[in-house]
Amino acid sequence: MALPQGYAENRSPLPKTVSCLVTPNPSIAPDLTVDAVGTILRRNKDLYYLPVVQDKQPIGLIRRLDFMDIFLSNFGRELHGRKPAILFMDPKPLIIPEELLLEDASRLVTGRTDRFSDPHAFIIVRDRCYSGLGWTLNLLEKITDLRVHEARYANPLTLLPGNVPIQDRIEAALKSRRPFAVAYCDLDHFKPFNDVYGYQKGDQLIQQVGQILVTHTDPEQDFVGHIGGDDFIVIFASPDWRPRCEHILEVFGQAAPRFYTEDDQHRGGIMAHDRRDQEQFFPLLSLSIGVVQPDIDDCRSHHDVAALAAEAKHQAKLISGNSLFVERRRSAISVFN
């Protein structure tokens, strides 16, 4: 998961959270009258939305078009001028916290099926307090930038996000301060398999691993990355990461033997040369998964999480066969103690 010295520190990662979308916008108190709000909107022709804020927290949203339709209608001002403006606000506007990932915010915006909901803007809060407005167009532009960024650093074999997007995603997960788990996945006995069956077969196997990981993770919450070679990273936001990992091992255990000849399947492995050029027997391919749940207070960067994940993977590879090891230590400091 490491890049060349100094590279990760010197680059400017793209923003990943809704905080980058905050646009200052005036708000109003809930006791303002229709007449007062009408005056504000008439004097500010470019003001299309007025969040209604009480005790620093947004409780609704007034939209210029809807409001002025009523205010400028026949006898609208005479009938409603002295009434509280909150009678004409949307009491359930879309409210998104600053720390939410842009991709999650995009799903919230596009998932609004109410035909009366506004598709153009939403309210952004920090610690439930009003921060400003967010614009859907800006959100979609940021999502596009992220897609281009991830494609630029994608692994050419699997087309999965590579080192840079993996590191960015871990940094964003730490910043969000929500629980997450990182699974480091690595094949066992891959080199001898490659030596015997060739690189084309090895590439097909790696692509199969990537497909298994993508298929059995939650696309709405989880992130699958390809570090390189036979190493993969899964960043789980879904709480059921353990059964997902166990299922991944089960599916891989069924798929791996199909990459061997029938004779090698019956033998349970292959004869190949080890790193010292000594011929020996190697069992069928297996998958090792090391999982860590980083402490968001003690892990300050992706480097700390990488150290934990690498140790978890090392422990998983000490177990024979398809294996899952969950690291109890959650602080990078404890790894070196």
Automatic annotation (TrEMBL):
Gene Ontology molecular function, alphabetical: diguanylate cyclase activity
Swiss-Prot/TrEMBL keywords: CBS domain
SMART domains (UniProt xref): GGDEF (SM00267)
Coiled coil: none
EC number: 2.7.7.65
Ranges where the CBS domain occurs: 21-79
Pfam family, one: CBS
Domain GGDEF stretches: 178-329
Any one of the GO BP annotations: negative regulation of bacterial-type flagellum-dependent cell motility
InterPro entries per the UniProt record, alphabetical: CBS_dom, CBS_dom_sf, Diguanylate_Cyclase, GGDEF_dom, Nucleotide_cyclase, Rev_trsase/Diguanyl_cyclase
Top-rank taxon: Bacteria
GO cellular component, one term: plasma membrane
NCBIfam families referenced in this protein's UniProt entry, alphabetically: GGDEF (TIGR00254)
Name by which UniProt lists this protein: diguanylate cyclase
